[in-house]
Design a protein that fits this description.
Layout: H1 30-65, H2 69-96, H3 104-124, H4 126-131, H5 136-151, H6 157-180, H7 188-195
Helix pairs in contact: 1-5, 2-5
C-alpha cells in the first residue's frame, strides 16, 4: 500500500521503477511474478541455446581435429564433470558473493551499461570462441550457475535497493509533515491565550 503522510493531503510517495520489473516489485502481485518468471525463462532459454550451440561446436571441434571415437568419449566424460563442477561453483560463488544494493537510478545505469557491453562482446567475441573451444561447455555451465543464483533469489538486489529508497523517501516525507504540523499548547495558560 502506498504511503500517505498524515499532514500532507494529496501528496503520495510513489515507488521507483526498476529495470525489467517496473513498479510491480512494490506489491509483488501477479504482474510481478509474470515478469520475473518470463525474464528468467527468456534468459535460461538463451543460455540453453548457447549451450546447445557450444556443445555442437565442441563435438565438431574434436571430430575435426581427428580425435578417435573412444578418446572422444573420455573427453566428453571429463567435460561433463567439468561442466557440472562449473555449474555448482558458479551458483555457490554468486550466492555467497557480497551484493551491492543499488538505488533505482544505479540499477538503470547498470542495465544500460550491460546492454552496451553485451552488444560489443557479441561483435568482438568470434575469434575468442575458437581459442576457447576446449573449455566452452564448462564456461556456459558457469554462466548458467551464475544466472541461477540471483534468478532464484527471493528478492533481487534492485528490488532491495528500490525498497530501501522508497522507505527513505517515506521517512523524509513524514519528517517534513511533522515539521509543518503546529505544536500543541504546553499548559493551560498557553491554551487560554490561544483561544483569545
Amino acid at each position: 500500500m502506498k504511503s500517505r503522510a498524515d499532514g500532507v493531503p494529496g501528496e503520495q510517495v510513489e515507488p521507483a521503477a526498476i529495470p525489467r520489473l517496473g513498479t510491480t516489485w512494490f506489491d509483488r502481485g501477479a504482474g510481478y511474478w509474470l515478469r520475473r518468471i518470463a525474464h528468467g525463462c527468456f534468459q535460461l532459454a538463451l543460455l540453453l541455446f548457447a549451450g546447445l550451440v557450444v556443445t555442437a561446436f565442441y563435438a565438431g571441434f574434436w571430430e575435426a581435429v581427428g580425435v578417435p571415437r573412444s578418446a572422444r568419449t573420455a573427453v566428453y566424460a571429463v567435460t561433463a564433470v567439468a561442466c557440472l563442477l562449473s555449474l555448482v561453483a558458479g551458483f555457490v560463488r554468486t550466492r555467497r558473493a557480497p551484493v551491492e544494493i543499488p538505488t533505482p537510478e544505479q540499477a538503470w545505469r547498470e542495465h544500460r551499461s550491460r546492454q552496451r557491453r553485451n552488444a560489443a562482446s557479441a561483435a568482438g567475441g568470434r575469434w575468442t570462441l575458437l581459442l576457447l573451444a576446449p573449455v566452452l561447455p564448462a564456461t556456459v555451465a558457469w554462466a548458467i550457475g551464475t544466472w541461477a543464483a540471483p534468478t532464484l533469489a527471493r528478492r533481487t538486489a534492485a528490488e532491495i535497493g528500490a525498497r530501501e529508497d522508497y522507505e527513505r523517501r517515506v521517512r523524509e516525507q513524514e519528517e517534513r509533515a511533522e515539521a509543518a504540523r503546529p505544536l500543541p499548547p504546553r499548559n493551560r495558560a498557553e491554551r487560554r491565550h490561544g483561544r483569545r
